[in-house]
């Protein structure tokens, strides 16, 4: 039982438990037994923090069922190994080397010695941000609902946003609050913070702590921090500009809004299209060029160590600087006056290639099972599932049983990671002392 197999099987076990709980009559608003496929699809989407749904979460599930969905989102966002290790720490078990390696690999961190303190700090940080988000959302929901209902809505949407899940208890997601600047800003902030990764958040908090303590020493941010923050910022700006320009005169999305609201909604869609499945406009009514822009953003996704999916911002940046180095005839890949190791470049290439192949296979499978669907709809749905984004143009509910199963598989692969899954299936590589002679070949 390797680390990768432990993680993959752990996610499967969590999905299985969630499916069983969501099948119970107590989880369904009608009080009847839930359909197996519906429960499996919802549990997978929640554990994989995706947000794709085949039933309306707010009306189909009871309060207990919604609580199960929210718990699965929280555990899925933390990750199976983090949640399991936290439970072991609570019952007093000491962490062995295998446990530390599992946490290190599952959370994509370089830390090994202080795994326990890292985990405690991450859980504490998550609780602080989620509670703060719920507190900030409370006044908005309180205007339309009673105290108890508004409290539940605030907690649910805060956890869903921070974990980049995109689940909403409203039938139209957040379309009803499209003009509410405060709610859009809070949800966007939670999504962005949850999507940049724990390491970046911790570095930012350390910098803020030093400034509050009056330390004048110059902070040296890591290369990971610089690449994640700069790439995220550029993608958000480019996405906002692209959606604003393309949808500006679209009467079904932004045309009937004032300019300020247009900018707000374009920025919000730029945020959610990369990581979370909320929507403030009718996604199915967007222009085809906007949908392709959204597909590109979804494929990139969030950052390593975060609750989002996709190939990750660092992977995109490594490919860009590698291409730049190749065009300039350089043999080293550099960024911010630091050299990126060759194994990291090879891993980035592998992630993109394997992810692209996976998406293509998923598209082919859905095209065979649901030939009545449009190509853009299938492509959008496949990328949204694989990148664990959860945005849909209305295709999810039209999928056949086999099509839903393919989407379930895509969500699972996207959450555990394609390379981790391949490592679990093939096994860890064995060291070898054999080195073959080098020979050149033509490329390009």
From TrEMBL:
GO cellular component assignments: plasma membrane
Family matches, as InterPro entries: Cat_transpt, TrkH
Key words of the record: Cell membrane, Ion transport, Membrane, Potassium, Potassium transport, Transmembrane, Transmembrane helix, Transport
Membrane topology field: Multi-pass membrane protein
Regions crossing the membrane: 7-30, 36-55, 67-91, 117-138, 150-170, 182-202, 223-246, 283-302, 345-369, 375-393, 405-426
GO terms of molecular function: potassium:chloride symporter activity
Pfam families the record matches: TrkH
Subcellular location: Cell membrane
PANTHER family (UniProt xref): KTR SYSTEM POTASSIUM UPTAKE PROTEIN B (PTHR32024:SF1), TRK SYSTEM POTASSIUM UPTAKE PROTEIN TRKG-RELATED (PTHR32024)
Protein name: Trk system potassium uptake protein TrkH
Annotated organism of origin: Phormidesmis priestleyi Ana
Lineage: Bacteria, Bacillati, Cyanobacteriota, Cyanophyceae, Leptolyngbyales
This protein's encoding gene: trkH
